[in-house]
Fold each of these.
Amino acid sequence: MHIDDSVPPETALSRLPNFDPRAVPVIGIDSHLPAVPRDALAPDALRQRFLAPPSWEPEVWSERKFAEREPARASVLVPVVMRERPMVILTERTTHLSTHSGQVAFPGGKRDDTDTDEAHTALREAQEEIGLAPSQVEVIGQMPTYTTGTRFIITPVVALVKPDHQLTLNAFEVADAFEVPLEFLMNPAHHHRHALEWAGHRREWFSISYMDGSTERFIWGATAGMLRNFYRFLSA
C-alpha cells in the first residue's frame, strides 16, 4: 500500500487541536492473514531469514512529499530482545518535541556525516536516546527504506539484543521505553487500518494497540508501517 497523502498522517494530523488517532474509525482488521509462526521469530530463524531473504515487496513504503527540502537519510533500530519470548523495544517520545511528540517510535534519527553506514546511524542513535550499548546488539539485516513526507529516507535496521542489556533514557527525547512481544506485532489480527478525510485528502494508516499492564501502547503512522513491512518480510 502506497500511502498517497499530501502530508504524512502522523506529522500533520497530530498537530490538529485535540486530534486523537485512537478515535479515528477502523476500516479494517487483517484477521484473515496468517500470523508469523512462533518458531520463525526465534533468533536463529531471524538470522537465516536475512541471510537468505525471500522474494517480497514492502506494503507501506512512501508518503507524498509536502516539504520542499533536500532528502535526508535516517535510520531506526528495530531491537529484538532475545528473551524466551522475543520482545521489541519501543520508545515513547517526550511531549515537548516539535515533531511526533508523545508518539511511540523506534529509537533512531538523522544520519550524521561521521556515520559510516545505516547501521552505524541506528546504533549511535539508540545509544544516545535509550543508552543501548552497541556491544549488546547484533545487527542482522536491514529493511527497505520508508520515505516520509518531510523527505526523510528511513532505513529500519533489525538487530538482536542481549536480554541482560541496560537502558538509560535521554530524558529530553524519551519519556519511556518498553517492550512488546514480537509475536504480538507479527500477528495481523492486531493490525488496524484507519482512514480519515481531511483537508480534501483521504488519509490512511495502520495502528497496533498493545496493553502493557494497564497502559495502552498505541503504535501508528510510520512506526506501524515499518512493522507491517517487517510482517510481510517474515511471512513471505
Amino acid sequence: MPGLDVGSPHVSQLYVLTQRHPSWAKLVDDAGWPDADGGAADVRDYESLLGLVVNGREFSFRLRANPVWRTRNPQTPTDSQTSALTGSRARGVRVAALSAESQLQWLVERTREDHAVWGFSVEGEDSHPRAQVVARNQERFRRRPGDAPVTIRSATYEGLLTVVDADRMRESLVSGVGGGKAYGCGLLTLAPGRR
C-alpha cells in the first residue's frame, strides 16, 4: 500500500507497506535511478510497531485519506450516479466530503469509541476531536487515454488517537483505512503519543 508524503514543493517521501521485502527495480526503471541524492530505500520491519498497539495506548498520527460518504440522495448527481441509483445498487453512490469541516466530521464519525471501525478513536475526554485537517488536495487524471477522468479528493489529518480495539487497529495499520488506497490514500503513520 503506497502513501505519498509531500513535505514541500521539492521534497516528497514515498511510504510503501508490503507483506514481503519490496523490490524497487520497476520504480527505478520507470521513474528514476537508485540512490539519487541519497534517496536509498529504508526498509524496516513493522512487527515492532504492531507489538506496541494495545488498548488504551495513545499515538500521534498522520493520515492521508479520501473522505467520501455513501448516499442514495446526492444533491447534484452526475449522469453515472443517476444511472447507479436507478439500478438495484443498495449501497448508494459515493460523494466527496468537500469542506475541511465535513472532512473532519468524516474522520470523527468513523472513529467514535462506540463505533471505531478502524480500532482507534480521535475523541478527547470532552468529545472534541484531537485531530485536525492539515492539508486538502484534489487530483484529476485519466487512468488510460480515452478513459473518463478520475477525481480524488484527499485530506491529510494529524492529531492524537487512542487505541480502542487493538486487533482492528493492527489490521488498519497493515491494510490501510478508507477508500482511495490505490491512489496513495489510507496509510496511517504513528509516532509516540504527545499532548
Amino acid sequence: MSMKGGGFDRKSKASSEVPASSLADIAFLLLIFFMVTTVFQSDQNRPIEWPEAEAAMKIDEKQKNILNIWMERSGTVYMNDQPFGMTDVSAFVGPLYAASERALVISIRSDRQTPYRFVDQLQQELVAAGVLRVVFATQLEQSMQRERR
C-alpha cells in the first residue's frame, strides 16, 4: 500500500496571524511609560508685590494658551523662567502668538513698584509683536485663584 505525500502530517502549523492578546498590554505599558516620563512645567513664582484692583475678570482660557510675563521692579523681564532683554520680547512672543492662531493671552505680572516706563516699554514690544490679547494680573485675581483651588 503506497502512501501519498509521505504519510506524515504536521501536528502544528505555523499561524500567519499576529497574536492580538498582547497588543492591549503593550498599549497600556506605553501609556504608563509616557505618563510617568512626561514633565509638566509650571512657571516659577517670582517674589513680587501684586498691584491691587477693585474688580477682576476671570480668564477662561486653557493654561497652554496663557503666557505669563513676569516683570520685576528693576525692569527685568522673565518668560518661561528665562530672563529676557526688553528688546527681545517681540522677537520671542511674535512667533508664539502667530503659531497659536491669535489665541494666546499675555498675562503681565508686574510688581506694584515697577516704574511705568518699564511697563510701557513692554506694552510697546507686545504691540510690535502684533499681540492683541493682554491682561494685567492683580492681587484680587490671585486671591480668586486661591479660592478656586
Amino acid sequence: MFSLTRRLVVCRDAIDRFLWLVKWPVGIGALLVLPAAVKTFERYYVIRNQLNWHNLIYFAIGAGFFAAVRVAFLVRRGAAETLEHEMTHTLFAMATLHSVHDMKINEGGGGSMSFSGKGNWMIALAPYFFPLAAFTMMFFSTLVGRIAGFMPDWVYIGLGVAIGYNLCSFAEQLHPRQTDFKAAGYLFTICFLPAANCLSFGTVFAFVERGGKGVVFFYRLIAYYTKQDWVAVMNWF
C-alpha cells in the first residue's frame, strides 16, 4: 500500500513538473490559436445557410430561457455555482493525481477545496475555461443519442440551459481579485483563458450544430487557420 501511494506521489509530482515546463509554451500557443478561433467563428458565419439551424434554434431557446429566468428573478451567484466551481477544481486535481482532502461551500457565498501537493495551473484555472455543466450535458446527450438512436429536441434545450448557466457563472467569476489567477500567474491567465474559452464554448456549439462530426469539423478549421497563421509568421521572419 505504501509503495502504491509513493508511486502515485511520484507520478503526481512528475505531472506538476511537466505542466510547469509546458506552461509558457501552452500560453504562447494559446495566443497563436486565438486568431484562428476568431477566423473559425467568422467561417461559421459565412456558411450560416449550411448550418443545422433546427438544433441551434432549440439550443438558443434553452439559453434564452435561462437568461430570462436569471434576469426575472435577479438570481445571483449561489451555492450551485460555487459547488460547480469547486467540483471543477476537484476534477482537475484528481485528473492530475492530487488527493482531495476537503471541499467547503459557504452559506454566504464562496467556497474552497484542499488537496495534496503543490498543485498546478490547470487546477487553478479549470473553473474559468472548462464549462462543467455544458460538458456533462454533452456526455449525457451522447448517451441519450446512443440509446434512443436519435437526439431528441429537449436535449438541445438542455444544452442551451447548461451553456447559459456556464456563461453567467464565468462572467461573475472573471475578475482580477480571483486568487486562482494569482496562483496561475496573471500574465499567463491573460494569455491562456481567451483561447481556451473559445475552444471550450466552440466545442459545445459545434456539438449542438452537428454532433461529433461537427466537433471534428470545428477543430479541422482551427488547425487549418492556425497553420495558415504560422506560415504567415514564418514568412514574415
